[in-house]
Every structure is written in structure tokens, then in C-alpha cells.
Design goal:
The chain is mainly alpha-helical. It is 72% helix and 0% strand.
Length: 540
């Protein structure tokens, strides 16, 4: 029976693995020799290609593979493999690749085809020999690069334990060689990490860094990835590697890991260090300014952000433009906190915007500023001027109308959005939730929310709305089930407020308090949660 390959692996450059072209050095042109093909073989090739073109690819595959075997021609073997892969015939591709390597054992392209096909077919335990050959085939000057790329071949294997064992066996001899030891231990560590063997990966990372030179950046990055996975012991290795870096990429990656771990104070310290060591690295100034802003160091943040803007304006591109918008938005917030809202809005409005996308980004930055400082009327007026037929902006305008308690205007805008796009689920949800929250027209509210959930199945915020309307309807058990599911799917402070209220009404006060505390950890200033706590006064 023909084995069918999944569409994701229907090319030699499998997802997560480097392409053959990237890893096969150009061969010197061979001297011209007369072809060994006779008329019979040429006819067989022609008939094979005609069968492929006329919808009989497997017949064509058989003919071309037969011609390849008779002539020992690498191009014909490659063509047979290509046809088999296109037809998702894993067995055919493997058969052609095996024949190719048997006939031309020193052909690196043949070996790499075999390796990648075996991996794609989950025959990981058969990859040791072609993997060893692939590394051995690489020139000495490219050996470390060939070793570093090995984990990418196995990135999507199902049997990660076998893959890790195979790679360790293939690289065993290279760990003892001073020139390749660091890269080899790093590759082994990555495979151990893929197999969730974090302690083994940490040991491999230590060995890799012990013999590491500045040229092998994979070693310190392995330690950094382990730290990101929660291996605290890896931080000592990261700190050991930091002073040896002569480029900003690694220390910047460390800053991001610290941010992801919510270690903002240490992240700011490291970002400050990057700006001192690499003062012309613009992104470091943007990151430092943002961290200083979040920690309330407005004066320092403004100085760092202005430094970034100055650098970005000297080399404008799409990425720096986005960064400038972010930096100016932060600076505008600082001005607004000082009571200079007019100046803050002017700062954003002066952002250059030659493209439609940039104009929209500038508008959204100003809206965010107004929302942050609860300037609902100003936000509504701005949207009234700018929304036009943009459904997302009209939706935002409706939300501002609700903040202003202009309920009829909100409903009018949302119904307009629905009429223009009957699949705009956020409008159904917002309208339904508004009705439920005000405890009016509950039947209609439920119908609207159910419609939204039909258009966006599983959305936790819509599930939250449905739970809330069931609570208003008195269906407490259904409400609890829905709200627990919503909170499990998305730990959000507003969902926590609703779930806690239902638990409180069910006399499960301790459970309610636990949920509300979790909500405060997520977003301590959430308006809905704060209002709920004021009503029930649980003493948190």
C-alpha cells in the first residue's frame, strides 16, 4: 500500500530543516564526458516525462527511476524523488533515495535526500548513518555550521527520545575534537531540550561553554533558551557568556527573556548595560525607555526614547517607523501624566504618516492615549471624524459611546456594523453583553451572544458573555460552567470578576476570593473587577 506523506513535507526542504541547496557546497565543474545514455534509455525518459504530464505520475516515476538505475545519473534519481514527493508517495521517494545513495555513495545531495525523507517518514532510528555521512561530507571549514544545523532536521520528529540518541551517537567523535566540541555539545543539548531532558541539556550547555570560542554563538544561546524554559541554573551560564559577546544580539535576547519572566527591574539594568556597551544600537534605547516608562521613571524614559527617535530618524524604515510610534506614544503618556494632554496629542499627531497603514497606526496611538487617560468624549469625537466606513473604528466608537452612557448611540452604531457585515461577531457580543450587564432584554441578549459564539466558536470572551447572561437569567449552574471554561481558556481580570460573583452567590466565598485574587494579579486596576470588589467587599 502506498504511504502518503502529509502536505507539509512535500518538498526536500522540510519545515524546520535547512534546504539542500543551503547545505550542499557548489561542486567544481566536471570535465565534459559523453553521455552513457543510448536511444532506448532516452526514449524511456521521454515516455516517463510524458506520463507525468498526462496524469500518470507513478508510471512516469517507475520509468525514470529505472532509467536512473541503468545510467547511474544523479539528475534522474533527483527527478524520481521529486515526482514521488509531489505525489505524496513516501515509500517511492524512499526507494528512489536509497537507490541513489547505493549507486552514488559519495553524492552529498543523495545522502541529504535520504536523511530528510527518513525523518519525514518518522523512521528516525534509521537516520544515524546518513546523518554521520552528512556531517562528514561537509568541508572542514564548514563542519561546525553543519553540526549546528543538525537539530533543525529533527525539529518536528515525534520520537524525540530516539532522535536525541541518534544525534548524540552521530556527534560523539566530534565532542572530543577541540575544533568541533562546542558546536557538538550545543547540538546535543538542543536535542535533549527537544526531548524535555532539561537537566541533560544544562550539562551539555556547560560542556559547550567550557570549550566555546566567540565564533560559536549557539553555545550561549542554548543556555539562554534553557533559562527561558525555567531552568534557573542556566542563568549562571548566561552571565558567564555575556561579557564575551562583541555584538548586542545576545544581551538583547537576555533582556527579552527577563521581560518574559516579569523580572522588569533586572531587564532594565541589562538594557542599560547594552546601551553603555553598544551605544549606537537603537533598539536597546527603545527597550530601555519602555522599561523605564513602565517603572515610572519618566525623566529617564523620556531621555532614552528621544535617543531612540533620533537614531531611528537617521535610518528610517518600516521597523523603525513602528518603533518611533511606540516611543512617541510613551512620551505622550508622560506628558499626559503631567497634565499636558493637549501637548501629548499634538506630539502624536505630528508623527510622519505617508502610508495608509501609518496613518491608521497614528490614529490608534492617539486613541490609546485617550483611553488610557479616560478621555471618552475626546476619543468618541476623534472616531466620529475618522471612522468613516471602517468597521473596526466604528466598533471602537460604539465602545466609547457606552463609556459616555450614550446607550442608544452605542446600539445604533453596533447595529450599523452588523448590517454592513453580518459576520462581525464582536458587534453581536458587545451588544448582547451590554443588554445582559444592564439586566434588560435578556432573551435578545442571549440570542445575540449565541450568534456571536456561532461565528467565533470557543472565544473565551464570548463564552464569558454567555455565562453572564445565563447568570442574569437565573441559570446559575450553566453560568458557572461557562465562566469556569472561559477563565480556564483565558485568565482575564474581567472574566475573573464575573466568575467570582457567581461563586459568591453560590456561597462559595473562599473560591470567589481565590478567583478575584488571581484577577488582581493579572490586572490590578481592571475597572470591572474593582467595581465588583467594591460591591461585595470581600476584604481582599
Amino acid at each position: 500500500m502506498k504511504f502518503l506523506l502529509a502536505p507539509a513535507v512535500l518538498s526536500l526542504a522540510f519545515t524546520g530543516a535547512p534546504s539542500i541547496a543551503q547545505n550542499t557546497p557548489k561542486k567544481p565543474e566536471a570535465p565534459v564526458v559523453n553521455s552513457g545514455m543510448n536511444g532506448e534509455i532516452l526514449y524511456e525518459i521521454l515516455v516517463g516525462e510524458l506520463n507525468v504530464q498526462q496524469g500518470q505520475p507513478l508510471v512516469g516515476f517507475s520509468l525514470l527511476l529505472d532509467a536512473a538505475r541503468k545510467t547511474n545519473d544523479a539528475q534522474l534519481f533527483a527527478r524520481a524523488v521529486e515526482i514521488a514527493l509531489k505525489e505524496r508517495s513516501g515509500d517511492g521517494a524512499l526507494m528512489a533515495a536509497r537507490s541513489w545513495t547505493q549507486v552514488l555513495p559519495q553524492d552529498r545531495l543523495a545522502n541529504l535526500n535520504l536523511l530528510q525523507i527518513l525523518i519525514a517518514l518518522n523512521k528516525t532510528n534509521e537516520t544515524l548513518d546518513p546523518l554521520k555521512k552528512e556531517i562528514a561530507f561537509s568541508p572542514v571549514s564548514e563542519r561546525n555550521a553543519a553540526i549546528r544545523v543538525v537539530p533543525r532536521y529533527f525539529a518536528r520528529v515525534t520520537d524525540t527520545k530516539v532522535a536525541a540518541e541518534v544525534v548524540q551517537k552521530a556527534l560523539d567523535s566530534y565532542t572530543a575534537n577541540t575544533e568541533t566540541s562546542s558546536a557538538a555539545w550545543s547540538a546535543i543539548g538542543r536535542m535533549q531540550m527537544l526531548n524535555a531532558n532539561l537537566s541533560g541539556a544544562l550539562q551539555s550547555s556547560q560542556k559547550s561553554l567550557t570549550v566555546n570560542t566567540k565564533t560559536d554563538i549557539s553555545a550561549p544561546f542554548l543556555a539562554l533558551e534553557l533559562l527561558g524554559r525555567g531552568v534557573k541554573e542556566a542563568e549562571a551560564l548566561v552571565l558567564q557568556a555575556l561579557p564575551k559577546q562583541d555584538k548586542p544580539e545576545y544581551p538583547m535576547a537576555y533582556v527579552r527573556v527577563l521581560i518574559e519572566s516579569k523580572r522588569f527591574e533586572q531587564a532594565a539594568e541589562q538594557a542599560q548595560s547594552v546601551t553603555q556597551r553598544f551605544p549606537t544600537h537603537a533598539e536597546a534605547w527603545l527597550l530601555l525607555g519602555s522599561l523605564q516608562f513602565e517603572q515610572g521613571f519618566d525623566k529617564q524614559a523620556d531621555a532614552s526614547l528621544q535617543t531612540y527617535i533620533g537614531m531611528a530618524n537617521k535610518a528610517p524604515n518600516e521597523n523603525t517607523q513602528r518603533g518611533v510610534i511606540q516611543a512617541q506614544s510613551r512620551r505622550a503618556s508622560i506628558l499626559a501624566k503631567q497634565g499636558k494632554l493637549k501637548e501629548a496629542r499634538l506630539l502624536i499627531s505630528q508623527l510622519p504618516a505617508s502610508k495608509e497603514e501609518e496613518v491608521r497606526s497614528r490614529l490608534m496611538a492617539e486613541l490609546q492615549l485617550l483611553r488610557e487617560f479616560r478621555q471618552w468624549q475626546a476619543a468618541f469625537d476623534l472616531l466620529a471624524q475618522q471612522a468613516g466606513n471602517d468597521l473596526d473604528l466604528l466598533y471602537e466608537q460604539a465602545m466609547m459611546a457606552e463609556k459616555l452612557n450614550q446607550i442608544e448611540e452605542m446600539e445604533k452604531i453596533l447595529r450599523s456594523v452588523i448590517s454592513k457585515d453580518p459576520t462581525y461577531f464582536n458587534a453581536y457580543n458587545a451588544l448582547g453583553f451590554s443588554l445582559a450587564d444592564r439586566n434588560v432584554r435578556l432573551k435578545e441578549a442571549k440570542e445575540l451572544i449565541v450568534k456571536a459564539l456561532t461565528l467565533a466558536p470557543g472565544d473565551p470572551f464570548i463564552t464569558d458573555s454567555l455565562g453572564w447572561v445565563e447568570f442574569r437569567l437565573g441559570n446559575t449552574s450553566q453560568a458557572l460552567e461557562l465562566l469556569e471554561k472561559a477563565f480556564k481558556d483565558r485568565a482575564d481580570a474581567e472574566i475573573a470578576a464575573h466568575l467570582g460573583e457567581v461563586l459568591w452567590q453560590l456561597k462559595r466565598e473562599s473560591d470567589a476570593i481565590a478567583v478575584w485574587r488571581r484577577g488582581l494579579e493579572i490586572a490590578p486596576t481592571n475597572e470591572t473587577l474593582q467595581q465588583t470588589l467594591q460591591r461585595f467587599k470581600p476584604g481582599i
